[in-house]
Structure prediction request, 269 residues.
Amino acid sequence: MTRSRIAQFVSACALPIQIAVGLICGAGAQSQETRKGAIGLDQAVELHYQHTPLPAMVHDLSKRYAISILVDGDPVIPAANLDFSGSLRQALDRIADIYDYSVSIDKRALVTMMKRFKNPDELPQLNVSEIRQTAIDMLKILPQVPFDSSPTAFGHDLRGFAQTFSPDQFAVLKAGKRLTFADLRPEQREALVGVIRSRSFGMPASVWELLRRQLDHFEDSVLRLEKTGTFKAVDGTMTDSYAVIHETRGTNGMVTKSSLGSFQRMVKQ
Prediction:
């Protein structure tokens, strides 16, 4: 959820959201109005909506029952029908379920509707600037550990570690027994720690670094097709294979290419 999208949604619906400084800071006594609001959520209501969008439902409820509602983003479903009789709290749950939201209500009766992404057509929101900053922050948090992103690098490191074993250490392992960390020589301990450190911190860091490069100047990035080969079947038919490439050029001029998928196309004879 992004603050800008929430602000746009709230503004478009003209929701009467009243959030006092005391609410934001978690300080101050609960006012008489908020206590009434909490009680009001249990009042009986009868609702009838025909092909009504979520913003219109939320606006109507907030206006009729003087409740504050905060909605996360825009729903996939454009509009829905609803005939309901019950408490206002149950009505909010029902509306949220229709539009694939979950509802939370705090002690001050502030209603928050958050996307729950159960609908397979619903996708998490992509805010490039926030994700880019998250990648930058993660790279600052993760230890700066040298890492080889090759799939075979881990096996190579382990084999190098195993080659440092003495005949006595091999005999212990072949007998089905275990070597503890204390059984290793100092240089072996250092090598083992290096392997674990590389896999635990180096790999995540390399992934976040790739994401940061992909999102650097993301607005100016391009998609293109790259031919990867041609397959000729026994019957003589030809098929070309293509990769879909996302390409971005960073501030430092470095070009980052990422394969997003591939497809094949029959070649006309």
Q: What stands out?
A: Strands lie at 44-52, 68-71, 80-87, 101-105, 110-115, 222-232, 238-249, 255-267. The first strand starts at residue 44 and ends at 52.
